[in-house]
Structures are given as structure tokens and as C-alpha cells.
Task: structure prediction
Amino acid sequence: MIDKFVWSEKYETGSSLIDKQHKELFLKIDDLSLAIYKGNIKSSLKNMIIFLEKYIQEHFKAEENIMRMAAYPHINDHIRIHKKFNKIFDDLKLDFEKRGGDSYLAIHVEKEIRHWWEEHVLVEDNKYVPYLKNLASG
Ligand SMILES: [Fe+2]
Result:
């Protein structure tokens, strides 16, 4: 069955905006999983790609602004990682445009996005959390 995403403290960044955006994304990934399970492959994959294109632009920009405000010293490394995801996304989108929405691609997208974001929030985003706390208390 479907592994539904469960939000917990370990995902918190200290920014309510960023947490809200992360939650929104994880819910979208759950929607995609459910749609795959129900067999609505093509339209749900298309919706996911449309959603992600806008989301990554807005989310990365918001996060990079916050890191800048918090004077996070490893911001450039973090921006580089965001750029890597942009490339992953561009490849997925291209694949979708070339092949259309088949179930193989849908499952691949769902797994890759779920895995990348879970890891990114827990590992990379987590590194700036102490700096955000300084920002809030300072
Ligand atoms: Fe990030």
C-alpha cells in the first residue's frame, strides 16, 4: 500500500514559511502516490510536473533568502544542491514530454522526488536550523 507521509519534529526548520512549503510538497507527493495506485497516471504526473516547476522556483528562492538573512555560512553549497535538483527536474520533465506519462515514469518520479526531498530536508536543510534559531533570538 501507500506510505503516507507523516510530519514530525525532525522536519522542522525553525521557519514557519519553509515548514509550510515542505508540508505542502510532501502532501503533493502523497497525492501522486495515491493517483498512481488508482491508475490516474498521466494526469497526475502532469499535475505534479506543473506543480513542481513553480514550487521549486518559489521554495528555493524563499529558502535562499532566509539562509542569507541568517548569514548561513554554507549557503553556496546549499544553492549548488538546489541547482542539482533543478537539473533532476528538467530531466524528468523532458522525459515526460518525450514519453508521455507512463506508469514506469510515474513511479520513478514519485520515488525519486520523495527520496530526494526527504533526504534534503533531513540532512541539508537541517544544517541551517541552528542559524535560523540565532536569527529568531537575535
Ligand atoms: Fe534546501
Remarks:
- Residues 63, 78, 82, 120, 124-125 surround fe (ii) ion (CB under 6 Å).
- The chain has a mean pLDDT of 92.
- The chain has four helices and no strands.
